[in-house]
């Protein structure tokens, strides 16, 4: 088995194990994580099992990655500009609301997911909790959005930061999702400003993910990107990484 195949298999098992602890989906989930219906069922079943809402976090929560995210939300050139932040494939994670709550710089945080069930659950939760921003100019919204079609919500070069915590992993490990994962990355690079970045949080080995990112982010004469990686740390015996993809000007 190749390194790439082994990495995908192991990470896929970890994703399923995380879901099994909260949910009845197993093989169906791992094979269909690129499908809207799968996630509608996942979040509907999860919410039906308890009367009290609880955020579902892939891998880890905001505190584990805040030091990777928050420094990218500081700008001296336009201190009052509203930075556009996308939490891509947000599910019912608290990541987007935490960015909204903790960013001293004004931000517009868009939490987007393909599942309207997840979007509705988060809208209801935020209304009930009356979450307040650190900066009074900051904004928070939840939208139903297929992230292979980011251009329908954003113009070119309009987003400052895209956070992807497990979304690309889910696509890469689903039966028919690999092509969609590449399309999502290309969409991200098109809507990002030249100073912006995509942060992918993943448990996939750098030898496999870096090669994939470097291949998918290049389109001669159209787009190019710089790709880097930092280790987030180890949780329950699994190493996690932050992959940063930044658009590079075509000359």
From TrEMBL:
<keyword id="KW-0808">Transferase</keyword>
<dbReference type="InterPro" id="IPR029063">
    <property type="entry name" value="SAM-dependent_MTases_sf"/>
</dbReference>
<comment type="similarity">
    <text>Belongs to the methyltransferase superfamily.</text>
</comment>
<dbReference type="GO" id="GO:0005739">
    <property type="term" value="C:mitochondrion"/>
</dbReference>
<dbReference type="GO" id="GO:0032259">
    <property type="term" value="P:methylation"/>
</dbReference>
<feature type="domain" description="Methyltransferase">
    <location>
        <begin position="82"/>
        <end position="197"/>
    </location>
</feature>
<dbReference type="Pfam" id="PF13847">
    <property type="entry name" value="Methyltransf_31"/>
</dbReference>
<dbReference type="InterPro" id="IPR051419">
    <property type="entry name" value="Lys/N-term_MeTrsfase_sf"/>
</dbReference>
<keyword id="KW-0809">Transit peptide</keyword>
<keyword id="KW-0489">Methyltransferase</keyword>
<keyword id="KW-0949">S-adenosyl-L-methionine</keyword>
<dbReference type="InterPro" id="IPR025714">
    <property type="entry name" value="Methyltranfer_dom"/>
</dbReference>
<protein>
    <recommendedName>
        <fullName>Citrate synthase-lysine N-methyltransferase CSKMT, mitochondrial</fullName>
    </recommendedName>
</protein>
<dbReference type="GO" id="GO:0008168">
    <property type="term" value="F:methyltransferase activity"/>
</dbReference>
<keyword id="KW-0496">Mitochondrion</keyword>
<comment type="function">
    <text>Protein-lysine methyltransferase that selectively trimethylates citrate synthase (CS) in mitochondria. Seems to conduct trimethylation in a highly distributive manner rather than in a processive manner, and thus introduces a single methyl group per binding event.</text>
</comment>
